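Read as amino acids, tokens; as here:

___
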Amino acid sequence: MTSTAQAAGTAGHTPPQSGHLGHIVFITAAAAMGGFLFGYDSSVINGAVEAIRDKYHIGSGELAQVIAIALIGCAIGAAVAGRIADRIGRIRCMQIAAVMFTISAVGSALPFALWELALWRIVGGFAIGMASVIGPAYIAEVSPPAYRGRLASFQQAAIVLGIAVSQLVNYAILQGADGDQRGKIIGLEAWQLMLGVMVVPAVVYGLLSFAIPESPRFLLSVGRRQDAKGVLAEVEGGETDIETRMKEIEHAMRREHKASFRDLLGSRFGFLPIVWIGIGLSAFQQLVGINVAFYYSSTLWQSVGINPTSSFFYSFTTSIVNIIGTVIAIVFVDRVGRRPLALIGSAGMVVALALEAWAFSYKSGVTLPNTQGTVALVAAHVFVLFFALSWGVVVWVFLGEMFPNKIRAAALGVAASAQWIANWAITASFPSLAGWNLSGTYIIYTCFAVASIPFVLRFVKETKGKTLEEMG
């Protein structure tokens, strides 16, 4: 299963009528609930970090491994999701992910030991990895060609919405616990309730999966032609010739090249140059330290003297800025182009990260002077804004477009793996680095943001306005 799931022949198709379009939006939104859970589960741990440290009496190294260990599950889930979906279908795959999200939420809320919490984090990570692959693929396969681009943006929008909602829920729970992460609510400590609340969207995701149709592409692949015809009529409607559309999809499936890892190898430096560029884009997206803002922001602000309640509030406002930036990117990515947005984002991140590094250099014990504290808070929000309006969206657009057709699926897999690895490296190292020198840590992130500018200028080509076939 390719992540783009392209069907040939988009020209000449009549857009769906308004009634069908409303139904398609519902189907897409239901599938994008996986993206919502992706964002929610990735970020909800932010509210529990200090409580976990206190409850289990662990140092920065152990804490970092508990937080980052979910990324191992993410990598495995992403690696196997395509094969599972090709074997049992996209809908069944969503239902498996929903069950795993639910189990992870319950287990994480009621752990009897640190190792058990880590285990449930891996289970949740596996579900995140599956959702990160299945959601975009399913949406691409059921979307009418005329609306595919806009509907595909639902996944990224759902991810950033999930991040924001998790921070809002964490803030509300902390308020109910009088600002104490270990305060009791309905018999549970606040941090346990934070992790357990994810049961609600997980169950909703599972129920919605029963209300949407299977992908017509999968149905055709297993010989259920009549069922596929019914789904195409349901999602496209209008005056579309359904039989012709089915033949187009079947023709595209026959022509697909099932790329292997060997196809990515080049004569120099191991991989083909274009694969290295994809790996570089994925790595830079994470090495600027963006996930520190979503995994550790509450801890970060508390470490410089901001009280827990305010730190949770700032985590929520950062998430709102993330949504605003993502909307800006969606609006301008096809107008301005991918490279200009990436360069604008890099420049903005350099300034914001450098200001954070400067502000944190004034840290004395567990406080910052008022001026530096204000600069740090504003710069953190500016950093997230520039990341969201550029690299947060643009990298995924590039990865979906830049690779030649014959290696696209395999190259995407390698680039995505590089992203999870870089994510793990930043997530696992931050507590120890921050304990060593918080300002120095942000100088490192600033250097990566600076390096991303010549990387884009030298190696990354614009893909705006080009067809996938033009990529070779």
